[in-house]
Structure formats: structure tokens, C-alpha cells
Amino acid sequence: MTNQVVTTERAAQSRVETPAAEAPGRLIEIPAGVTVAELSGRMGVDAIETIKQLMRAGFMLSMNDEVDFETAAMIAQSFGLRVRAPRREERGPGSLVVSNEGEEKSRLISRTPVVTILGHVDHGKTTLLDQIRKTNVTAGEAGGITQHIGAYQVQRNGERITFLDTPGHEAFTAMRARGAQVTDIAVLVVAADDGIMPQTIEAIDHVRAASVPIVVAINKVDSPRADPERVKRQLAENDLLIEEWGGEVVAVPVSALTGDGVDDLLDNISIVAEVEELKANPSRSARGVIVEAQIDKSRGPIATLLIQTGTLRVGDLLVAGEVYGRVRAMRNDRGMTVDEAGPSVPVEVMGLNGLPQAGDIAEAASSGRAARAAAEEQKRRREDKRRSGITLAEVHSMIESGEAAALDLIVKTDVQGSIDAVRNALQALNTEKTRVNIIHAQTGSITESDVLLAVASKAVIVGFNVQPETGAQALSAQEDVEVRTYDIIYHLADDVRKALTGLLAPETRDVVEGIATVRAVFGVGGKRKAAGFYVNQGRLSRAGTIHVIRGGKTLFEGAASSLRHFRDDVREVATGLEGGLVLDGFSDFQEGDALESHRVEEVE
Ligand code: GDP
Description:
Elements: H1 9-13, E1 27-29, E2 34-35, H2 36-43, H3 47-56, E3 66-67, H4 69-78, E4 82-84, E5 109-110, E6 114-119, H5 125-136, E7 151-156, E8 159-164, H6 169-177, E9 185-191, H7 198-209, E10 214-219, H8 228-237, E11 250-253, H9 262-276, E12 279-280, E13 287-296, E14 300-309, E15 312-313, E16 317-320, E17 323-331, E18 337-338, E19 340-341, E20 346-352, E21 361-365, H10 368-383, H11 392-400, E22 406-413, H12 416-427, E23 435-443, H13 448-457, E24 460-464, H14 470-479, E25 483-486, H15 489-501, E26 508-523, E27 529-541, E28 545-550, E29 553-558, E30 560-565, E31 568-569, E32 572-574, E33 578-583, E34 594-602
Bound molecules: guanosine-5'-diphosphate.
Guanosine-5'-diphosphate is lined by residues 119, 121-127, 167, 219-220, 222-223, 255-257.
């Protein structure tokens, strides 16, 4: 779990390597995917004690088994330790953030943080954005009124902050799904009179998947029904332990309506930005991300570009996704004409030959020919059926080739209890080499937002007793995101296990065509036994492979040598009917055993 929390100076100072016993509450760092032995070492706790504690939590693991971050954190916390997730740079490749690799260090300068505001609907995201804009536009700057261009900058005590003006995690994740990540810090708005709601949790997961630090704004503290303490508790329940309680997450009480606490929030954003050491090279050619774009009747296509690195100047050639052009004019967020724009600055750009899409990467080009070629190449790439997602079948080869060490999953279930059951079943699959990483788990049907998160994170979506919404189905097909739904946890876990070990045949999938319960066991000569069964769902067929399942474990898989309905040999027995079968090589039936008929089906 990429549980990104904000590390402040204070927290950093408390990372002293002393045994747990001497310093309760010591902060330890747990890498993503750690063995029980290694975890014990980091905690300064005997491995046997760790194993016992894991057993109490329902995990039967040995020294060399791997535990995922969430479980490891839970165990460490039960020993009174505080936990820190791996740092962003330790999280390996796949970052969508512009890298400064290869840049001369002397050319790098600090840049302004780019902030996105997320949270549940009606918790005050828009009001907060308006309040920040209203009170922090530098007086004296021409106009003094910000234009809506999709992003704006504020300045306080000489420090600037850039805000993306499209709140919500859909926009945030849609950009990531297109390959761009512009956000350096996420502000999570939680209304104090409402507390953490489903979209708050979704936002937390989306931000964590992006490894972006979170600052929490506890909003609406002016409301008579405000209960900030409850929000703090709920944050802790969601692994966001605030500083006040010994954690590392900054939480600031605010009222977006009255403006109370907003300055404090901005100060804290600046502090977090300082810790992040955001840098860029203003003297290279520009690269940025399109935030929004529209056609203006008189001026043609106008795109808001948030520069990430380098400087863009009027007259530069620019490629943005599939379109390009020479920058004719630029305007900043106050509607003023500017000649150049550096890192973290949002500008409206005129001169493109078409409309780019939000999330498109924009880059300066050296010549008209290079610009056209780059735009055409991008178009071609998109027209070739875009393969943005991954499938379970591809997971093993990615792991083999070292591209991934973990399978990222989004889990949707019918009820809360199933989340824990699925989580436990999947955690049991973790090995030294491979790991199942649940980046988002929630009840409810599979939504477009889930699909976008899957695209952005290269994750596979598994549904347990839920189906995709129509929009999500269309989007997943378009983006090639694999969505698998199950009604038996064992099958879900089994497919994931097969994917991890490369046993999942790429073109086929195992389908359960029916489930039956053993109601009687009788002898059929020699030591062989037959099972009398009742079909609860679907059908049991002779063509299928019969699985005998007891207590969630499969005892046997094999073909039926005889399948009967009353005295007749039949090909199949359907729902609501009784039958009897004999299996080749298995006779140890017990009443109550589940029988499943599996069929291998081609995946189109
Ligand atoms: P969004 O859906 O998260 O963008 O929420 P809005 O900014 O649209 O706010 C939803 C409602 O909450 C509006 O009626 C706001 O006036 C109200 N609201 C926002 N912030 C505050 C606040 O700090 N205090 C109070 N009392 N109401 C607020």
C-alpha cells in the first residue's frame, strides 16, 4: 500500500534508531512488502512475538512470508510503534511526475507547489478555492481579479502556491490516466459537520495511488454541528494519523465560508512543499500539462497549460498531444498578457492548430517539422488501439521481466464484510517475490472513477458480488482495463494466484457453471463412494471439471466418471434438481461439501 503521509521536520527528527522498548512510539519505516523476519528486525521485536501477533490478527505466517504494508503497519502499531511508508523515491519506476534526472544540479531552482483540492461532494471544495482566490490575489497586480483558466496562483509572504481549479478526484485521476501528474500536494477537504464520507475515502485512495502527500482541511468549523474531533478519529481509522496525535499528517481546521484558518492552511501547504524540495530547471525547453482547453470564437483554440519544467515563450513551437502550433500569445490567471511562463505557472496559450485534451503533455519543439511529426506520432499511437490497462494474464510476464513486483488491484464488493474476506484471501497469496497490492477497496458497483484509477495505476479491477455500471463498462472496454467479477472468493483469489505465478492461461478463463451441495454419500462398490447432490445454482455437467470444496478449501478437482439424475445417465443436472455423481480418484465426500462445476471459457 503506498501509504503516503506527510513527513515534517519534527517527524523526521524523531526517527531515532533505538529499541522499541526504550522509546515507545518510535517511528519506523516499513518498505512496501516486507518479510515477517525483516519486520521484526525493524520493530526490534522477537520474530516469534511478531508471528503470534499476526496470528491474533488472523494471519498464519512464518518468518519468511511477506506481509503487505497495511498489515505490517497494523502489527507495528499494536507494539506501540509509529509507522512511515516508503519514501516516494523508493517506490520505483512508473512515476508520472516530471523527473529532473539528467539536469545539471546548478540549474535547478525551487518551484512553486501545485495543489489539488479533493473531498466528498458538498464538503466545501469550491468554496475553499474561491476563498483562497478572493483573499490572496496580490493587491496592486493589474486587474486583481483572477480569470477562470483552470488553475491560479496565490502569493503570501513571498511564497507562491498554484491551485488547480478543478476540484475532485475524477479530474485528478483522469489526468493521471492520460499519463500526466501535475499535483504535488493534495488538500483533502472534510466537512466537520459531516465527517469522512465514501468519496473522502475514495479521494484518499486515489491520492495514495499517486503517492502525493496529503494535507487535511477540516472545513465548516463555523457550523454549530461541527465536530472536528470526530473527523480526527475518522482520519486515524483511515491511516491518516494527524500530528496532534503523534502522526505525520497535517490537519488544519478551517472555515471556507468565513475564511478562518485559511491562512494557516496555506502556511502548512508551504511547509509541506518545503519538505518535498520541489525543483525544476527554468532554463530548459518547456514541458507541461494541459489543464483545460476550449475554442474561442474569435481567437481559436485556447489551452491552459501548467508548465512543469523549463520556460515557455511567445514564439516557441509547442506540441500538445495531437495538436501543435507556434505560441502566438499567452495570458496569465489574471488575464494579463505575458511573454514567458516558467515552472508551476499556469498560462492560457493561443496558437495551437486544434483542441488538446486535459491531461495531454505539452512540450516545446525545436522546429515546425519536429512539432508536426511529434503530433502525428501521438495521433497514430492513439489510433492504434490504445492499450492503457493491464490484464491478469499479463501480470506474470511483467513480474518476470522485472517491470512490476506487485499486482495492483481495485476491489469492489457488495458489503463491507466481503472487503475483509477478499483482503484476507489476497494477502495470503503474498510471497517473497510477488505481492498483491489493494490500492482501493470499497463497497458498491464498479464506477467510471474506478476504471480511471485502474488506468492511472495500471491496476486490475475485481468485483465480488457486484457488476460494472454501464458507463464503467464502456470506459473499461475503451481503455482496456480488465474487470473481473466473481461470486466466490475462492475463485477470485485463485485467479489472482494463477496470475502471479504465471499459471493463468492467457486466452481462457475458468468459469463456474454451477454449484451444488452434497446431501448424501453412498457406496457404489469397492471403496468407491458416490455423492448425492442438490444443484443450488447453474448446472453440474459432465463436460465440466468438478471441484470438491470443504471449509473454503478445494479438496479435489477432476472429471465426473458418472453423472446421474435419478437412474438416468445425463450430461448435466440443472438448478433445483438432485443428482448423483462419481468422481475419478475421489471418494471422501462428506455431507455439506460444495461441488462446483467449472468450465474453461475462451476470453474474447
Ligand atoms: P463542493 O461540492 O465540495 O465543492 O462544496 P461547495 O464548496 O459547493 O459547498 C457546499 C455547501 O457547503 C455550500 O452551500 C457552501 O456554502 C457550504 N460551505 C462550504 N464551506 C463552508 C464552511 O466553511 N462553513 C459552512 N457553514 N458552510 C460551508
